Amino acid sequence: MDCSQCGARAVVFLRYAGRHLCGDHLAVFVERRAQKEVREQLRLDGHARIAVGLSGGKDSSVAMVLLHKFLARRPDVELVAVTVDEGIDGYRPPALEFAVRLCDELGVEHNVARYSEAYGHGMDEVVSLDPEAIPCSYCGVFRRSLLNREARRLEADYLATGLNLDDTAQSAFMNFARNDMERTARMGPHADVQPGLIPRVQPLLRVPEKEVYLYATIRGIPFHDAVCPYAERAQRGLYREVLARLEERSPGTRHAMLGSHEVMRSALRMASPPVELSTCSECGEPTLGDLCRACALVQRLQA
Ligand code: SF4
After folding, report:
1. What are 104-146's pLDDT values in tens digits?
2. What is the model's pTM?
3. In what helix (H) or strand (E) does residue 159 lie, and over which residues does it extend?
4. What 3 state SS string does 80-124 have?
5. Which of 5, 80, 119, 161 has minimal Cβ neighbours within 10 Å of its Cβ?
6. Percent helix, strand and coil across the chain, each rounded to 5?
7. Parts of the chain with a pLDDT under 50
8. Which atom of ligand 1 is nearest to the CA of 123?
């Protein structure tokens, strides 16, 4: 089929938009949506330092390249990258190499934060210490906390992630199915600044995963293309599958899910504005109680 924009050979059919696009027009379409998000989510009125969570995978590598494309020439904006090393043998080390290479190419400062240093254990050890647990239930909490800690150490005003439309729609779906409205209210992107919490921004919020992949390929962005060995034990997989089937039957489901989530999130935030947070007695991260969730998990491992 031909591109709906220019008549060249199309590389993709976007069913939710009813459009065939060639590589060039798909790339422009991705860039436009990401740029709109950056404009809407970032308040750039003075100097801003943006820490980018860069795993070396396709999503965060594309987010890094796009932020660099949009902002690197601005003298009032500084980009730094943070890679979290979860301690997963055979998976994170090669991804880390991609992250280092991309930062070298872009001339962006690169930092590494390791679970083994922050929590005393990498994920491979966590899995052997608590074999019954779903690894992601540790890893997700550790990553969120460590990225925030590292972004604060780097004095960042924002923390950018590579979360795409599929990721966000799946999370919204999971929260809804589990009646976890507290998590819905906390999800990024964040417009409000809470002491100790670095507001998160998501340039790829409205870009489907497949288009992120194609964009990386079209633009020649190097990334580590592998799946975490613990991913198949994650509950998210089931939600991913269901959502993909719904999208197949009713194109636009992911966008509709995101739209419903955004309405619900702002209603929740208006109904109960964020409570004042204290600091974790162990690590100093913002928390509701005495211990943050990451330190509570570390204590569980030591029990
Ligand atoms: Fe961590 Fe789970 Fe992601 Fe693997 S799949 S990196 S264990 S959150």
Report:
1. 999 999 999 999 999 999 999 999 999 999 999 999 999 999 9
2. 0.95
3. strand 158-160
4. EEEEEECCCCCCHHHHHHHHHHHHHHHCCEEEEEEHHHHHCCCHH
5. 5
6. 50, 15, 35
7. none
8. 7
